Amino acid sequence: MKVSFKLVLKSAAGYELTRRENRQLERTIQDIVRLVPFSMFVIVPFAELLLPIALKLFPNLLPSTYESTSDKEKKTKSLRATREKVSSLLRETVKMRLPSTVTDEQSAEFKDFITKLTLGIEQPSKEQTMKVARLFKDDTVLDNLQRAQLVAMSKYLNLQPIGTNEMLRFRIRYKLLKIKQDDRAIEYEGVDSLNAPELQAACASRGIKINGIATADLNHHLKMWLDLTLKEKIPATLLVLSNAYTYGSLNSQETIYDALQAVLSSMPEEVHHVVEAAVDSDITNKKRLDLLKEQEELIETETKQVEDTGVKIPVKDKIILDDVADELTKEPETEQTKEAKEAKLDPKDEDKKAQ
To answer: DSSP assignment, residue 8?
Structure first.
């Protein structure tokens, strides 16, 4: 508490907190929030008798300071087993569902990639895979994933897979938002600044396998993640699904690019159709109408799901991951870049600026 109070004062004074300090402050705040319901078992007479039942139903209720090493190991083993099941399920349900041929010149890579996957004559190159993966935006993928995939992704990210599709999407989106912000913090401070436990925690939160993996390999995997998300601008949703796909793989030669190809080919038709509409400027009115009908059907399905379950909790999911990604991947503007921009201003623009 004393250390966290100092961090609050430091932040209030205008000093920027490091990633480690931010995580320490977040952890302390979470523990304080957990202590509020936890304290009721102490205040209310005989309520402590119900504590084991409450902890069974809500295992995250216990503050981190009260967690023993064995409890942490149990959670880690449980998460590992869940991720292996999700990985196996994802491999079994991979289906080649591809959109119709795209004719626009701007989407030539997309067309060629799909053709190669469909015919199986030639394996798409690494460069092609990266170019096509960029077309599948985070929000497009999340908004069109089916419930089975949303549940699997929630479990893989250690989130509660309960509630409507809208609730699952919100949880996943918020989790990915925190990961994207953490990506920028790690990239700024450097992967090598993390100690072994921090490196393991960072990899685990991104779905990267940590059990039995050497520290040097974890360091390499995290650097690759940062390179793909921040420099190559590959959607985090695809990377999480790719990590899930390779998690239980016995084939050590299988790369992240092989997993990306498998995940892209298994996307629901709705995802492919939305991407096709975005890249194909010559798409017919009929296809646009079909796309609108697909989205309308998804809305009706989710509305019926809410009515059937009786869960009418309003979810204000206003997070747009693609906008956040663009902001995070922007290079910070220095004094030199500002001066360079001003130097390139047209004289007419300068007159307007002066006025």
So the answer is: H
Category of 315 on φ-ψ map: left (φ > 0), alpha (ψ -120 to 50) or beta: beta
Residues near 262 by beta carbon (within 8 Å), at least 6 away in sequence: 94, 242, 245
Distances 283 to 128, 208, 267, 279 between C-alpha atoms, Å? 22, 38, 20, 9
Q: For 37-49, write each residue's pLDDT tens digit.
A: 666 666 777 766 7
Tokens (6 digits) for 74: 């149990």
**Does residue 171 contact residue 319 with C-beta atoms inside 8 Å?**
no
Domain boundaries, the chain: 1-67, 72-329
Whether residue 119 contacts residue 145, with contact meaning beta carbons closer than 8 Å, is answered with: no
Mean pLDDT of 189-196: 93
Which of the 8 DSSP states describes residue 181?
A: H
